[in-house]
Amino acid sequence: MAKFIPCSLCDSIVCYPGFYIEVIMKFYAILDVHLLMDHRTSFRDKPTLELMRALFILKLCSYDTFVNHSLQMMTTAEKILGNRLFGLFMRPTFYNQFIAGDDRKSLAVTIGKLTKANIHPMIACMMEEDLTASEQQQEQKYNNNLYRIITCLELLSSMSKQACLQVKVTGIMSPKLVVKICEKITDYETQKKLAILFADALKTGTLKKSSILNTLSDNEYLALERALMRFAQIGTASKIEGVRILIDSEFVSMNHTLNTIAMAMMIAYNNEKALIWCTIQCYLKSALDIITELFNMAKELKVCFGVKIVRGAYMEQERKLAKMNNYPDPINDTYLGTEEMYLRVVDFVLEQIKGSFKCTVVMATHNETAIRVILQKVIDLELDFQSPQINFAQLYGMSEQVTMPLAKSGVTVFKSIPYGTITETLPYLYRRATENRSIIKGARKEREMLWSELKDRMKLKF
Predict the structure, then answer these.
(1) Taking the model in full, what pTM does it have?
(2) pLDDT in tens, 145-161
(3) Where do the Proline dehydrogenase domain residues begin and end (predicted)?
């Protein structure tokens, strides 16, 4: 017999089968407590100096003037002061606030803190592309990046039972080649044929000739084959170490190729579970169409599907490129439009999970309202909010008042953390600051909670 309970998220009356009522009641009890956490609960495990640093940096990053000129200021300061003196300023401030570290020891410390709080690491190796390098130098850099990725997979395997590693395709192969292949992917069938072709190369070590790629030169064909061999090593290491690989999205002009490579790796390695994931950027007007096609392909090819859903990190650059090259802006016109697209994509994925499709999703969001809506959808679909198929993620160093409640309620939650040297991470810090203005400016609640915690500690001390 069905029972009726009040919904604490929207004050409506919700009907659920009797067998499910206990799970729902437990969930609401946990959620209502933890999403209304006070500063004592959110920050009690944080050292006072870390709270002061977070308050200072989040406040500083809320000023547009600072954000707009931050990269120029930092690179100039590095040139004037030198690496050592610049590091003395950066490491205890911005670097330690947002970056995992640059060696095994610092990475272990960061992951240890997260594990203690029931939060899992989602590491991003910094691999910024050098477009001025020669072809030989680029190949050497791609091989060096491969070594870093394999090493990082081994480190993560030894430090965390549930870790992910984010990989940029342009850290493994030429961006120009990525774009050239992308221009050939004009429809669903072409993308599927290429994904199967690339998957075969991952398994056999040889890329067969295809009419789809007839515009590639012999050198470009060899470069693509070498790149696929690097991805094969990454996929094999992922399977051995049990660490999932998230293929990052980049610019719109590249994304069809990136998704095709991700799908090829899924065909090769996602037979039993989702080890390889793609990324969907919901600031794109075509986001729902993209993920619908990828889902259909995964179903057709009978592979487990993994996806990270984000709003996107290249919005300003994409708008400039569209204007410069005189093509339609691919980005949703408003923030609300992006928010609506994000929730539509999430709804689509959760419906697929409800339909027993083998899919794992990470919903990367800092928006508390969106999280409540998503969790309500999970309950409406009678899904288990603690299922390993359903995951959330936020950026390291931000939104603790969001991450901590989720972690304490038993939801699987990740922190996305860059891993690299100070110089390597400067472009990342700048891009995150510029593209996440709304998040940083909206961190007023977090800053208020930080200040309340600091005042309470000062009262206790004196």
Answers:
(1) 0.85
(2) 999 999 999 999 999 98
(3) 111-439
